[in-house]
Amino acid sequence: MPPHPLALTRRDLLTAAGLTLSACAPTSHQPSNPAPAGPADLTLRIGPTLANIARDHTIPTLGYNGTVPGPLIRLTENVPLTVDLFNDTDTTEFVHWHGQIIPAAVDGAAEEKSLPVPAHGHLRYRLTPAPAGARFLHTHTMPMSDLTRGTYTGQFAFVYIEPKENPARYDQEVFLATHEWEPFFTSAEEEEQPELPPPPSLKPDPKPNGWEIGYQRFTINGKCLGFGEPIRVREHQRVLFHILNASATENIQLALSGHRFQIVALDGNPVPKPQLVDVLELGTAERISAIVEMNHPGVWILGTPRDDDRTNGLGIVVEYANKSGPPRWIAPPKSRWDYTLFGTDKSPAPPEETIPLVFGKINGGTGGFNRWTINGASYSPSAPPTPLHQGRRYRLVFQNNTDDAHPVHLHRNSFELVSINGKPTGGLLKDVVLVKGYGKVEADVTPAGEGLTLFHCHQQFHMDYGFKLLFNVV
Question: Which range, 15-24, 125-134, 201-210, has the best average confidence (pLDDT)?
Answer without folding.
Answer: 125-134
